[in-house]
Design goal:
Elements lengths: L1 H4 L16 H8 L3 E5 L7 H11 L4 E6 L4 H10 L3 E4 L4 H12 L11
Parallel strand pairs: 1-2, 2-3
Helix pairs in contact: 3-4
């Protein structure tokens, strides 16, 4: 998150430490894109994605996972994530996915989408 905040082409408006806070902050800040970790305390990434998809349908959700395990990716996509990226992706690739998601498109050329 720190590296994203240092970029001039991405605006980080909030950071959460607990999945239970994501909908409240989403309503407060009205972001175009929310990036969620797969593993969060409270609501995990899958649960938080499903709640966001239902409660804030105009927000594009990108999830980050430590591994590209097919079950994790499948669960995140089923919950409404438009992309699932691994944490070892290049920062430029993550930023490209954010820009694409902000346009409500699906990130292209991303191996885990």
């Amino acid at each position: 998150m720190l590296l994203l905040g240092m970029r001039s082409d991405v605006e980080v408006v909030a950071a959460i430490e607990n999945g239970n806070d994501v909908v409240e902050l989403c309503r407060e800040y009205e972001p175009d894109v929310v990036m969620l970790d797969y593993r969060l305390p409270g609501l995990d990434g899958v649960q938080a994605t499903a709640v966001l998809h239902r409660e804030c349908p105009d927000v594009a959700v990108i999830c980050l996972t430590a591994s590209a395990h097919p079950r994790e990716i499948e669960a995140l996509k089923a919950a409404g994530a438009i992309a699932c990226l691994t944490k070892d992706e290049e920062l430029d690739d993550i930023v490209a996915a954010i820009h694409s998601a902000a346009r409500h498109g699906h990130p292209q050329d991303t191996p885990n989408t």
